[in-house]
Design a protein that fits this description.
Elements lengths: L1 E4 L1 H9 L4 H11 L3 E4 L1 H11 L8 H14 L1 E2 L15 H9 L4 E3 L16 E2 L1 H8 L1
Parallel strand pairs: 1-2, 1-4, 2-3, 4-5
Helix pairs in contact: 1-2, 3-4
């Protein structure tokens, strides 16, 4: 299943091993999900996961990023015709649409107004798990 995972889901899944976000991260690492990404998403993952407030070890962040780049699917994304309220969210939707993902998983569903989705399904982590697994 081809998905795009927003950074907030990745961070939540790494911080709390028992929630829905953690289950999604485990599924991705196990190969049950094909992660779509582009250079902008990788950059954001690295930047956010490297913030001191999370205290993630640099070597573990590097290993996770290498895993995503090796086992994920790199996408050349087409820009959106309608901008999102937060332009930092645009790469995730652009990659999901261009890569023909089944959905985008985010903790901020409201950041993706329906008119901008171009029929892309957007799920919160718990809703994704309830709807697919």
């Amino acid at each position: 299943m081809r998905v795009v995972i927003d950074t907030n889901v990745l961070v939540s899944g790494l911080l709390s091993p028992y929630g829905a976000a953690a289950e999604i991260v485990r599924m991705a690492v196990a190969g049950s999900l094909d992660l779509l990404y582009d250079a902008r998403i990788i950059y954001e993952y690295e930047e956010v996961l490297s913030r001191p407030k999370f205290s993630f070890e640099k070597s573990r962040v590097d290993t996770l990023i290498e895993f995503i780049e090796h086992y994920g699917i790199q996408v050349v994304a087409t820009p959106l015709s309608i901008h999102l309220p937060d332009v930092d969210d645009e790469p995730f939707l652009e990659v999901a649409i261009s890569g023909k993902a089944e959905c985008l998983i985010t903790g901020n569903v409201a950041h993706y107004p329906i008119k901008s989705r171009r029929k892309m399904r957007i799920f919160a982590p718990r809703h994704f798990l309830n709807g697919y697994f």
